[in-house]
Structures are given as C-alpha cells and as structure tokens.
Design goal:
alpha+beta; homodimer; globular; 10-stranded antiparallel beta sheet; 5-stranded antiparallel beta sheet
C-alpha cells in the first residue's frame, strides 16, 4: 500500500516527484478516449524508471504461445495489446544539455490528472547540471470529441539564463512491447513523411497487418504569441522528428503545441491512411489547441452530469469513486461494437487481450445504469458476433453439436489464454455471458434482444453445459468434473457450486427464452430451430433432467452450499490466522500450498449468492457470508465489490465500508502492489456496483428499480444518478433522509425500502433513512 | 507402429535406407558407455532428416525456465542435457563432389548395431550425381573399457573411377541443442589446437562453466596398409579439422581411422584438460583401432555372460529383450556416483535432466539382479547425497523441520520441472525413493545401509508425508489433498490411493528402521537424533496416528480401492470404446477431456498392488486388475511392465505376453511414435522387470529368492541369470520343465513355486513346469 497521491475531490495529484513510484503514477494518470490512450509518460526524455505506453484500441499482435509444456487444445497465440507510436515525445535541449528529470535537480514538481475536465498537466522547476534553471508547464489530453486526436502544450521558461533552445517533437514507432513472448518487435514501417512543422509515420503490425498512422503538427509560441519557426527534419526507420532551433532569453517563455493524430486501418482503407490522417489533422490543427481542449472538457462536464457520484465528508472515498468512473469512461464508450473493455484499458499492456468475463460480470451494470442502452447492447452483441468462434473453441476441446465455450481472454473471439486449469476449466465464464443477457433484459426490458441474438448465445451455452456435465452412477446426480471456479486458488475441482448453479440457471433461463420466442416470435423460432438444428424435445428433456438433478454440494450441518466436493476436507482456518508478512499469499506461498489451503481468492460461492440473491433468504445469505468471507483473501481486484454488496444486504455496514474503500482505492493506494503495470480497469465497474448496489441498495425487482440505501457513519451525504429505462433518477442520501429525484418528464414507479412509490416527472420524493433496514 | 527393423537375435538391422525414419534409426542404434555416447548419425555430411547428438554424462546447461504463467515455487532453470562436440564427423569429397546420402543414388545400404560386441557399422554403395560409384564400409564404437575413447574406421572404395579424394575429419563444438528454451548456443570456446593428424577443442558450458575437451587422431590406410599423409588444417571458432588431400584409383580402398577422446572437467582440472587429453589419446592411439575394438568387444561379451536373457522360438521377443538390456548397460555402469539414468540415456536430448523416479521404480531391480551390489548402492547414495537439496526443495514449497521432497527431475538434486501439477503435486516420487531403500535392503540384505544413509533419507521423506497430510474433520481421517499420482491423466486430485498408501508404508518402514537402529546402532542413532533434531516421541506419535487413520478411498460394492476421491463420479467406460483413430488419446484429445475421462495413463492403483503385492491376496489383486486394466491406455512407457507382472501373477498369461511384447519392442517398433527423439531408456528397466518378475515370477520372500515361472505358448524356452546376494543363478524354462542352476560355489535355499529348495554349489535342480500355478 502506498500513500503519496494527494487526496482531492476532482484531481489525482502528485505534488513532488516520486521517481520510485513513477510507473504507478504513469498508470494512474493515463489518458484515454475509448479509441486511443496512453500512460502518463513525460514528453521530454527521461532516463529513470518508466514504462512507455501508447495504445490504439483493436490493434493487436498474435504473439506465439509460450508454455513450458504443451497441452492439447492450447491456442496458437496470445493477442497482445500493442504498444504503438510514441506521439507525445518532445526532446528538449538547452544549449548542449538535454532536459532529463533523472539527471536534473528538481526544485518544484507537480503532476496532476484533472478528472473533471479530462486533462493531464505538469509544472516543474529544475536546475540542470550546468546550473541553468527552467520552469516547465505542460498540459495534454486525448479528445473525447474527436477520438483520433490528442494535443499537448509544453511551455519552457528560462529562469536564470539565455541560451540556444532546441525542441525536437517526434513520432516513434520503433518501440517494443514489454509484454512480448519472444522479445520480437511487432511493427514494420510502411511509409513516412516529414517536413518542417509536421510529419507522419504509417506502420504495419506483423502477422495481423493492421496499419496505424500517427501524425503531428507543430506550433511554436513565444511568450504566448504564435511565431514562425524553421526546422530541420529527421527521418529514420519508423521514426520522424522536427529539430527546431530557437533561442530563449532569461524570463522568456517558449511554448510548443503538438497536435497529433492516430488512425487505424480498422476504420480506413490502408492505401489512404496517410492522406486521411493529413486531412483530418489539418482540420483539427486549424481549430487550435485551446478550442480543441475546450470542446473536450465541455464533453467531460457533460459525461459527469449523468455519471458522477458525490460523497460528502470523505475525500478519499470521493476521489476513489470518481477515479473509477473516469477510467471506465476513458476505456469504453460503446461507439464501436468491435471493441471491449481491456483489463488494463489504456494504462498498460499486461494481460493482453481485450475481453474477459469481467466485462459481463463487473462492467455491464455500470454501463446499463449510466450510459445509453446502445452501449450495453454493443457489449452483448460483441459476444453474439463471436458465437461461431465460441463454437469452434468448444469443438477444439471435443464438444459438438453447436456447444459454445466463450474464451477466457480474447481479442477477436478466439481463445488466447494458455493455462489448462483456466483455459479449459474456468468455464463459469460461459455462465457470466448468459447471465449478462438476463441482466440486460431485466434492466432495460429490451426483450426482443432475445430474438434472436440472446437466444442464439444462450442455446450455444446451454448445449455446452449439457455436454459438460455427466451422469454419476455413484451419486445418481449430474456432476461437473474438472473445473476452476471464480476462486482461482482451486484448480480442477469437481462440482464447483457456482459453476453448477449458473449452468443450472442458464438451462432454466434458456427454456424460458424458448417459451418467449414461441409465444412472441413463432416463425423466427421455427427458423432458428432449423438454423441451429435444434432438436427441442430431446435437448430440452436433458436440460430439464439436469436442472432437476444437478449435484450442488451442501453441508447439512452448517446449512451451506459447499464451494466444491470435498471442501470440508481442508484444514479450515480463517484468514486472520495468516501472518501479515505472508500476505498477499500469492506473493509468498507456493502454488500447491495455496491450492491446498482453504483460502479463497475471490467471491465464488458468494458470487452465486450475489447473482441469485432473490432465490435465497437473508439468513441463508448471512450463513454463507459468515462462513466464506473469513476465508476470503480478496487477492483478485474483482472480489471486494461482491462482498461489499452482500455485506450491505445483510447489515454488515462497517464491513461493507471497509471492503468498498479497498476496491475503490485499489489502484490509487496500489493495494496489491501491481499498479505499475497498469490500472485494474474492469474492477472499476465492480467498484461502481459496490457503491450503487451496496450503499444505494439498488436492485431491479419485478420490473421496477428498487433502492434501500444506508450511509456509512463517517459520510455526510452521497448522491448518484442512474438511467432506468425511460427515466433518469438522482438518489441523494443524507444522514437521515433519502431523496429520490425524477429528472425525466414521465412518472416512475419504484421501490424504496420495499415500499412502492410513484414519483412524477421532475418531482422528488424524500423519506426517512431506515438505519435498521438491513438488520436480520 | 513401424516395422522396418529386421528381426535378428543379436543385431538391430536396417537393410535399406529409410530416410523418413532416419531419426528413429539414429536413436535405436545409439552408442554409449555410461560416460559418453552419441546417436547413430552418419560420419559424412548428410543434408536429409537427422538429429545430431553427442553427449557427455553429467555436463548440463541450466536453461532459464520457460513458462506461460509463473507459479510461486517454480525452479529457476531446467537442466538440459548438452549436445556436445560432434567428434564423429568426416567430410568426404570425391573430385569436387561432397558425399551426401541425401543427394546420391543409393544402390545398397545396410546399417547395423551389433549388440553382442557393441559396435555400429554401415555398408553402402552409392552413385554420386557425376555417376561415380563408391562403396563405403564404416564401423565405430565407444569403448566400455576406456570410457573416454571412441573410434571410427571408415573405408571408401572407388568402384568405377579414379579421382582426387579429400577427407576432412573434424571436431565441432559450434552446435545447438534442439531442446533449448531460448534458442541460445550453450558452448563457448576455451582453446583449440590442430596440426596434421590430430586436433583438440576445449569448450566451456555457459553458466555452469563445465569444460569439455574433444580430441582426435587420424590414420590413413590404403588397401588396408597404413600410409603417410599430408593435411591442411582448418581452425575456426569452436571447430578444427584436417583437410587431407589424397587420390584414389578405381578398385582401390582408402580407410581413415579416427580415434577420439572426450574429457570432462568433472574429472580433471580445467587447466590440464588439453594436456590430459593429448596424453590419454596418444596412449589409446598407440594401441590402434583393432586392439581398442578387441578389448571393447571382449568386455561386452563378459557383460552378456551375466545379464543375457535367451528366448528360443520368438526372434522378435529375443531382439527386444536384448535391445533393452544393451541400452541399459550403455546408459549406466555404476562407476560414478554423480551420474544417474537419464530418460533418454545417450540417445537424445528430450526431457533434459538425468534423474526421474523411474530410476528407483523401474531401473533399480535390473541393476540389483544383474550388477555388483555397488552399482545399486551408488544409485541409492545419489539420493542420499541430494538430501539437503530435497530439504531445500520442500522448504521452498512451505514445508519445514527437515521435511524432504525429492525433485521430479534433476541433474544435481535441484528441481528442474515446471508444471505445477507435476512439480509440486506428483509427490509419490518421494515414496518411490523410500521404497527403493526397502527394495535394496530386501534384495541384498545390506541392512547397514540404513545406518545412517537409508534412515536419513527415510526420515526426511516421512517428515514430508507427516506435513503433507492434514486432518479432515469431515472424514475424521488424515487426507492428502492436491496430488497427482503416477497416472498423470489426473491432476490435483485428493487422496490418490497410491500416494496415500506409499506414504503410510513409508512411515511404517521408517518406524521399523528406527527400531533397527536402536537395537543395532544405538549410539549412531543418538547422534542422528541430535543431527536431525528428531523429536522421536512427538513425531512418531503423529506417524502412528497417520498410519492408523489415513484415508484410503474404497468402494465397498466392488471391493476395490479407488484411484482417488470421487473416481466413481466419472463416466466409467473402458478403453475399447475409444475409436482407434483417437488413440493415443494424448495426441488426439484436449487435456481437459483426458482429465475428465476415466482413462489411466499408467499403473496407479495397480502400482501399489504391485509394490505391496504380499499384503493383498490374489483375488483382491485380480479384482483390481479387472477394474483398472480395461481403463488403462498405457500411454506411458512405464505402464505395461507393471501390468505384465500383475497379469502373470493372476494367471492372465496371454495378457502378460501381449503387454510384455509392447514394452520390450516399444522403441524398436516406435509404438508411441516418438522414438525419433530418443529411446525410452528407463522403461527398459521395466521391460527387464516384466520379464523376470512376470514370466520368471521372481520375488524376494522371507529373505529368499523365489520363482514361479511360466512360458508363453509360442516360446520353446527362455533363460536368464541373476545375482542374489552371494549366488549367481541361471534359470532355464522349457516347455515343461524349469531348471535352476546355481553357478556359485555355495549352497542356496530358494523357493520354487512356493516350495523351499536347497541347491548346492554348482548344482542344478530341475522340476516340472506348473502350468496352472497362477490360476486363481
């Protein structure tokens, strides 16, 4: 855990330079707009610790699988997020000295990410080895209005000298991925062009042959006034630069503005990349830095209007939740259905791929409640589009007849992961994808999504479950052998409760969907039967049998479902018995010791209780929580959020608050000691969920939105907004009252503390906060 | 399965060139002497399919571990067997044409390995592209008399031309390992020297800094008469050669003799390598090829005197068993206690390392019965010497107080393997190492090996078991969670019967050993208590409790022990239900499908029934065999031998014969389609065991050797010899009689078909063969 980021309601601030934490800060202050993004690297040369990162969504390299020992069924490659052109670079030379914070004396330093307006700025004063003092003020953003454009303003003031000043803005595609299996470079040059004031590089990704074009145009200002300049040009493989010779006088400021563009051949014909980039960049350039930035920050203010969460009385929590919301918006906008939510977004390369089950299980609820319905629908369609790949994937593992197994990690629908216990066995992900369809339909009432997209995906997944179980003569039950549940600290176990439960649920929900189709879309249904060679009677007979007779491990004495067969054979000790110096156990214990231990990485049986909460009474949930939470080490970023929601539901308010703070400040405080590699983007959806479903008690019940809020004792108030179908609601929770404001014109009927309420258009309703509502 | 090797009693013969099988033939006809060895590569240049391999025992490279996903506890490196200097190479040029069988027309070809005399020869006639016809006759061996020396005689006859002939014998250290994790070269040059007629190269292994010196001296003979010659020398990095210009006339023969040496710095000071090699090679050279070969083949004839097995009436079986015995002798001689029995011996690089549990479980019985006691004792001492490393290994995984976990694969006592389900979980290997001590003592009666070596190893292993189990409140039993048994088609299972059983047995045997020490070596025992901080009372109390209460999964209905908890939840189908085209399943099924299937890779529960045969009655063994054998795919080379022994014991004679043939001709017929990589050396010990314990019914009972032979119906007779303590016995089994000959001077009391017999020194005893002895 680190504690160097200044607590602030709207900003992430580093108020003196922490070189040892630089990679963490670079992750935290990353910028992105759903299409391009980069880490908070310095513009000028820096020889200290840094992880350079510039990313273009959807562009990847299929890196040949690396394993110690091959297992049949492993994918051929792992799709790696590509470190693309470094377009922020501006080398600075004063006299013959190159500005480098690693070799300069830093007199003042401040780096801040302004989440409200979406820009990153730096201000510092340094003394160069020669004694020259300069002040630098920078500011940059990647536009959420024009998602191919980024811009930098970089101002140097000579504090105690006059000398030559050389500015060298460049574009560099000659870069490596840190996350490369065989240390190869992934980019080849296609074309470059450079002249004074501007330059372009088009590069091609090896194997996938994506083209990306990076371009830049330059302005120079002297004391704020634009001026002419001359420049030499540099042009070597995959790299172009302008070398701009200037002089600077004591007290004078020189500003360089760099307006840049990144285009991908996903969106333009390859042969027109350079020309398109030039045209497009010219029009952005003609607007100028100030106008571009203005449009961009206005758009951010708009975004916040609908998705902000305000907490009064707890700056750490306020900063945490806004950071999570900000990064989610930076990562995924729902504009392009080919894209998804990468685990590190635009903050790092690690984990490659773009899509995990995190999207469905932890991010969808955020987008459902804060973004237009199209955004969530695109997330669902992404999987529908990959259905044939999921069928191929299952087929490669020996399944047939249209059974679909969605990949653990993917970029284009193909499996990328290569650990057998995950790739082949962590199949509950299929359930998460089915559940997301239900969750979407429940929230939006967009039933027709089932006809046919939702149904087709559900059919493939149900067929998978029907083949993945087998009949145990011994148990006289259907069993599911050899799986890994959400708790990855158990591998290749039998009858993971969560997996069996979500399989059972999927089959049931698919049956319901079939009924819906028969009733509402009979001819479509007939065509689907044909298309999928669906033998309804035989197949659904088996599904009914599985639903009825699937084995769900249970301990009658404790009255709890067991995480898996044989769980109680373990030496059941609670987490508080682990010495502090051995936490997190995944950094201190051997893998076999972790596997044999009773410790749970992330919500597993409790994940089911969270998903199927309405099918269990509060006492049952409490019994399970009381058994499993003390065994849970929360060493996945996706764990505390689910526990927060459940703790809140059973009245464990302090626990809910503690777990919430952990999830919301996971990266800001570098809780798991791994933020240097990038932020945990998908868990940020979990944080939002923890807040709104935990503190706000938000649910959908019988087609109505429902709330049962409580407030942590150290907060004065909190407020959040959600979309629900045709309404926008603002929920404001104070120490003793709850106020729900209907910001739309039409009435809404909702549940507040289980009581039905009708709130008219543009009206609000205020009730007493029920402090004991969650007590059991 | 392939069928191109000519069946012959003493030879392995390829009577026409099979380029597509060349790598298989290279493996089969490998030569070795326990210290150096090589594959049957051609001396002359060959541009076709080949896997070049020359090996020096004990010399390895610690190749940085390669994994997809790191798990805590993985070793840092995998010790790779090194492909060392190619010293057999002789490039041949006729006129301007280079001799290369890949580009010549092959008119006649024969390659044969003479196992009786231990040499490899080739004879071929080819037409070069120019039309010139030559005949070549080669012969080579690596000496088992002087284990650093190898020699080649290579004769060329010009059949239809006269021309220039250039011979270029060379030594080449500039070679790669095919089995390299990161494609590095492993050798650096230290020193070279070359002059006409001889040359030397000393190279150093990266990281481990072993030095190896290869040297050669040359003779040229014309029509069999030694003659003078001149030579140019070539000398480039890690490579030296002589270039010998000659002329050859039609009908004339030119012979080159190359006497070579390979020395390792394991045995000589590095600074004296070249000098030692020169002196040593000079003395071998002065003997000459013929004398060197004579000594060598005499030594082989001696070896066969004590270890041959003769089968009459079945040439395939005869060739198979001699091939196995020959390769075992080539691999391990017991002369150097730092060495062990690599899985591929000197026939390939694959699997790296030198020592698996194969040594104890499958090879020790061969050496116990056919070699002096010192050889087996060296194999045991090898593990004793590695005890502190085994303790470190266990400690790295979280065990303490002197618990020892021997590595899955090792070169120097350190673990090399890196699959968590094997490395951390296939812990039954520890049991095999404990059992080998028992097996050795039982066979040799060398009880004092227990004081202290055997005891120290047993204590470390027993301590490991005591920590590896845990008490299950649920079962009220000790359980062992998260293991992989010998059947590697199950991973991370709970309560593998074999592992639990051998753990229980180890604890019991260690208790017995303590009693022995207390009684016979009381003061030594006191010092051992101190040395190992052995709290006898507390520790053995726990051992007693575990012995009494360890969980052994059992099915009361079938009256069989179950391979693991939950085994009967599987869809139990027998192997004959697998379509032939899907066999072997490990080449056709995804890993998860294999894991979920009931199919067994190699003897697992049956491994225990084999080891602890005297504790189960025949009916019990039969019940288990009848259940498990139909589920066993025998996709490990170590499987059929155990099944052979058990089938024989319960009267399944045909089954025993079929499985035996499979194990004994595994490589000759390339049964598993992988002999190209090298032969399955350690399974050859299993073949010997299958023969002697299966057909011969050899056991040790109550300190006596015991036999209960049967003869497969298509054999006329078979005979084998064994050492047992102070006796050498020859067992000759005919269609209807068994004759046991006591070849030593002292009497022996033994059991034949459970009847006690005394056979006087140099006497024999003949009885009727009991055809129905094994019927149940």
């Amino acid at each position: 855990m680190k504690d160097y980021i200044i607590h602030n309601e709207w900003k992430i601030i580093e108020d003196s330079f922490h070189p040892a934490y630089n990679k963490i800060t670079e992750s935290l202050m990353s910028l992105g707009n759903g299409r391009i993004g980069h880490r908070a690297n310095f513009e000028e040369k820096f020889t200290g610790e840094t992880l350079q990162g510039n990313y273009v969504a959807g562009v990847y390299y299929p890196d040949k699988t690396r394993v110690g020992w091959w297992k049949n069924g492993y994918p051929k490659y792992f799709a790696k997020v590509l470190n693309a052109a470094n377009w922020i670079g501006i080398d600075i030379k004063i006299g013959n000295e190159t500005l480098d914070l690693n070799t300069s004396e830093i007199l003042e330093f401040r780096r801040e990410l302004d989440m409200q307006h979406g820009h990153l700025s730096r201000e510092f004063i340094v003394r160069l080895p020669s004694g020259k003092k300069i002040k630098v003020v920078t500011r940059r953003f990647v536009s959420i209005v024009d998602s191919e454009i980024g811009a930098i303003s970089y101002t140097i003031t000579a504090l105690n000298f006059s000398d030559k000043l050389t500015l060298s803005p460049f574009l560099d595609f000659d870069i490596r991925n840190e996350d490369a299996n065989y240390d190869e470079k992934f980019w080849d040059e296609v074309e470059v062009s450079v002249k004074p004031g501007e330059g372009y590089v088009v590069a091609e990704v090896r194997k996938t042959l994506f083209h990306v074009c990076a371009g830049m145009k330059i302005n120079i200002l002297r004391n704020g006034i634009k001026c002419d300049f001359s420049a030499d040009v540099e042009n070597r493989t995959k790299f172009i630069a302008n070398i701009i010779p200037l002089t600077i006088r004591e007290g004078e400021s020189v500003t360089i503005e760099k307006i840049a563009i990144s285009l991908s051949s996903e969106n333009y014909p390859k042969e027109e990349m350079m020309k398109t980039a030039q045209n497009h960049l010219n029009s952005a350039y003609s607007k100028g830095f100030i106008q571009l930035e203005h449009e961009h920050s206005q758009a951010w203010l708009e975004k916040w209007k609908t998705s902000d969460i305000i907490i009064e009385g707890d700056i750490a929590a306020q900063q945490g939740i806004r950071f999570n919301i900000f990064q989610l918006h930076q990562t995924y906008t729902g504009e392009d259905e080919r894209l998804n939510i990468g685990p590190k977004g635009f903050t790092g390369e690690k984990y490659g791929g773009s899509t995990y089950w995190d999207t469905e299980a932890f991010c969808l609820p955020f987008f459902l409640a804060t973004a237009p319905i199209e955004v969530s629908r695109k997330l669902l369609k992404y999987r529908h589009k990959h259905l044939s790949k999921a069928i191929e994937n299952a087929s490669a593992l020996g399944f047939n007849q249209g059974a679909a197994l969605y990949p653990m990690v993917t970029m284009n629908g193909e499996e990328c992961h290569n650990e057998w216990e995950i790739t082949f066995e962590e199949v509950h992900r299929n359930g998460a994808i089915a559940y997301a369809i239900f969750d979407y339909v429940r929230y939006t009432n967009d039933l027709d999504y089932l006809a046919p997209n939702g149904f087709e995906v559900l059919l493939g997944i149900s067929r998978f479950w029907a083949q993945r179980v087998n009949w145990s003569e011994e148990k006289q039950k259907y069993v599911m052998l050899g799986v890994t549940g959400p708790n990855e600290y158990e591998n290749n176990i039998n009858n993971n409760f969560h997996t069996n439960r979500i399989a059972q649920w999927t089959l049931q929900y698919t049956l319901g969907t079939i009924d819906f189709l028969k009733k509402n879309h009979p001819s479509l249904y007939q065509s689907l039967i044909k298309k999928w060679q669906f033998n309804e009677e035989t197949e659904t007979d088996l599904w009914h049998a599985i639903i009825k007779d699937i084995h769900l491990p249970y301990d009658a004495k404790r009255e709890i479902f067991l995480q898996q067969d044989g769980f109680l054979d373990k030496n059941i000790k609670t987490v508080d018995e682990i010495p502090a110096k051995e936490r997190p156990i995944n950094q201190h214990w051997s893998w076999d010791r972790i596997l044999r231990s009773p410790y749970i990485k992330q919500a597993d049986t409790l994940q089911s209780l969270y998903l199927f909460e309405d099918q269990y009474d509060k006492k049952t949930i409490k019994r399970h929580f009381d058994f499993y939470e003390p065994l849970t080490v929360h060493e996945s970023s996706l764990s505390p959020c689910v526990h927060t929601i459940l703790s809140a539901a059973i009245g464990y308010k302090q626990k809910a608050y503690d777990l919430y703070l952990r999830t919301s400040r996971l990266d800001l405080d570098d809780y798991n000691n791994d933020t240097a590699d990038g932020c945990h983007i998908t868990s940020m959806g979990g944080t939002w969920m923890a807040f709104v479903k935990g503190f706000g008690g938000m649910r959908v019940q019988n087609g109505m939105i429902s709330f049962s809020p409580f407030i942590p004792h150290n907060w004065n108030s909190y407020a959040f907004r959600i979309h629900f179908r045709n309404n926008v609601l603002k929920i404001n929770v104070l120490k003793n009252t709850v106020c729900i404001e209907n910001l739309s014109d039409n009435d809404i009927t909702l549940l507040l503390y289980d009581q039905q309420q009708i709130i008219g258009g543009n009206m609000k309703s205020e009730v007493q906060l029920k402090h004991d509502h969650h007590e059991i």
